[in-house]
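Input:
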Amino acid sequence: MPIQVLMPALSPTMTEGTLAKWLKSEGDAVSSGDVIAEIETDKATMEVEAVDEGIIGKLLVAEGTEGVAVNSPIAVLLADGEDASAADVAAPAAPAPVAESPVAAEPAAAAGPAPVQSIAAEPEWTGATVTQTLRESLRDGMAEEMRRDEKVFLIGEEVAQYEGAYKVSQGLLEEFGAERVIDTPITEHGFAGLAVGAGFMGLRPVVEFMTFNFAMQAIDHIINSAAKTLYMSGGQMGCPIVFRGPNGPASRVGAQHSQCYASWYAHCPGLKVISPYSASDAKGLLKSAIRDPNPVIFLENELIYGNSFDVPEDDDYTVPIGKAKVLREGTDVTLIAHSIMVGRALEAADTLAGEGLSAEVIDLRTIRPLDLETIIESVKKTNRVVSCEEGWPFAGIGSEIAMIVMENAFDWLDAPVGRVAGLDIPMPYAANLEKAALPQAEHIVEAAKTACYRT
Amino acid sequence: MAVKATKSKSKRAPKAAKSNLQASGEELLQYYREMLMIRRFEEKAGQLYGMGLIGGFCHLYIGQEAVVVGMQAAVTDDDAVITSYRDHGHMLACGMDPRGVMAELTGRSGGYSHGKGGSMHMFSKEKNFFGGHGIVAAQVPLGTGVAFAHKYNKTKNVSLTYLGDGAINQGQVYESMNMAALWSLPVIYVIENNKYAMGTSQERASAGTELYMRGTAYGVPGEQIDGMDVVAVRAAAEMAVTHCRDGKGPFILEMMTYRYRGHSMSDPAKYRKREEVQKMRSERDPIEHVRQLLLDGGYADEDVLKQFGREVKDIVSDAAEFAQNSPEPDMSELWTDILVDA
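Output:
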């Protein structure tokens, strides 16, 4: 059978081009890879290579012809033993169809994201508790999971011999040894990528960033390598990994060391994002994160590492990812916060109570997946919402909360959603300026009163 | 003086050693077939791209076949492979199914990633192929992490981590080499030096063009190898693999090779002369080289090689047919594989 050589496309957008020059003549033998012609588009000149071997039986398009449609025959190639008359037969054949799906695509509306699943909250803890700092609870959470699963290891700067730049990994090197508690050079891009590769192999790395500010060096591996590979591999290769460390404004450290990454990471499908407040939630959620088969961003807060909380005495106590917690019930306004802002929201609720307003306080605990159910249930009760975060306002967590409240409870709203956030500026160093840049309890009180028309 | 001492660790493969290398007729036939498979597969991919059946980016491996085939000849199925976006040849050399690879190129449900990855993003846990990575040099720390896991799991396996002469200038390559050397990780960095990082020649991109020396600061030994000679590649690979399996840490192999086609299908490759490409093709073609060894050694005659050619062509035609007939992914695929159910 003679083979038709078709006008190739140089790019997915090319529909026609000029056949500038033939480099082979009728009767010439060609083999795979031989350049047979040059074609031009408005962008470039490119060479056409033979894919099959044979003898050029006929050139169907003359040199210099413009507007030759992609996929129309430009030459006929004869196999051994075929003569030119075969070329005549082949010539008038219709052009090959352009990439057409053999199966009609279903309308996009036929599919959608999995419906939001109701996640059960952890049962109320009635057993014994121990008073622990947030710092200690994180260490215990890691230690318990490392005892439970030998695939779990901790890697990061100063995590082993120094016992953590913020002393979160105290005692871990001693208990688990240098093979599982690994000090790295200062090389965030490198060790984040290395840990993701180990995760592809089925290990369960816990990557500590000294602070999340330095994870900017590694964000390509967090998003492009960790978060997207499961999808790009059609479900074959995932990455069970936890990236953890302090996040958010610290104290008097200037713009590069003071910002909240909750909204950055929460933006990306393929990641789970956790940002706890209490030590018991931090420990329970860190354990869930380490057991989770997906990449998890675990955002801690340096300023509350030393705060003490009651923590359940149970090596197997976990808190489900994706479930918020109502810390204080109220009827007039819902304050939604995460991490250090939860403390300020609770403080604001006390102040508001003194002014006759009953505020409900929700600790999101997990940013992604966001607990729509708890938020909407509360909004339907209070009809007023104020979101509280330390991050910048633009495209922040508050923006997302406002949107989902509109989408799911618009008719229940009695006032616009209020937003309390950090000022939209790089963090200043001066004590007075820094204080002014950060949202405090008084800002939450003010926003709540506005939402309740009590200004 | 210290520099000199370290330098002695990195040296060019001596020419004499190369010419001493022997491969059996059976081995040569196998390499010939594997290289021919990659060549024909890539030509077909180029053709399907020209017909609009393959979209986006498509980076062909034509000209570089001896590198991956020679490397693969020195490892076992339990060793891992990871590479960049010029990955079709690596997948075929790892034993992945040409149908699944071609159907991924056409974005069909029969592709390795169900059509959700494309040319640059395919994986096979079964074949220990870890991708397929589209961000230049991202595969280097990832492959180093695969080696970390080999060591953590106390196996003797190695990680073949391929990168190009463009990727070698990314910072994360050196972050990886440093950690691999510190922790003696079993990783072989295979630099496929095809002389051009997209349109920028190596001379214009790299201060110090002896890329096998790039690990010198970390004490990582390196060798420069003729990447157009599959037997030389295999010999170097065997030496590097032994080094890794003996717990001596990472190794760099700089493979001097050449790509006949542009950087991707949409690159007209105007930054080099046609004569340069023609010269490489006619004088240094890796497949022609083995073909001559087979004929000269009397291991095969023209008829046998023609038969090989027909068999390979049939496999590639079958893959292309499958890739065109496999249905597009179901719309439900949009929303699957984002997260694993916990």
